[in-house]
Automatic annotation (TrEMBL):
Name of this chain's protein: GIY-YIG domain-containing protein
Pfam families: GIY-YIG
Provenance organism: Rurimicrobium arvi
Highest taxon listed in the record's lineage: Bacteria
InterPro entries reported for this sequence: GIY-YIG_endonuc, GIY-YIG_endonuc_sf
Domain GIY-YIG as annotated: residue spans: 2-45
């Protein structure tokens, strides 16, 4: 998050500031990376719904 908000990343520097709104746990890196790939295919409406779900560690 610090790198994104400091403007060091050319892909994210135009959309400042970044705020962490969702975190979920995975048992291993492979599962987490598969989930990340799935996220990259989703629309904004899905994320708005996801932020309020019980799987969001930040909501606990």
């Amino acid at each position: 998050m610090e790198e994104h908000n400091s403007g060091l990343s050319k892909y994210t520097s135009t959309k400042l500031p970044w705020v962490l709104r969702y975190v979920e746990a995975h048992d291993d890196k492979t599962t987490a990376l598969k989930r990340e790939l799935m996220f990259k295919k989703q629309k904004r409406k899905y994320f708005e719904w996801l932020f309020d779900q019980p799987s969001n560690i930040l909501k606990k």
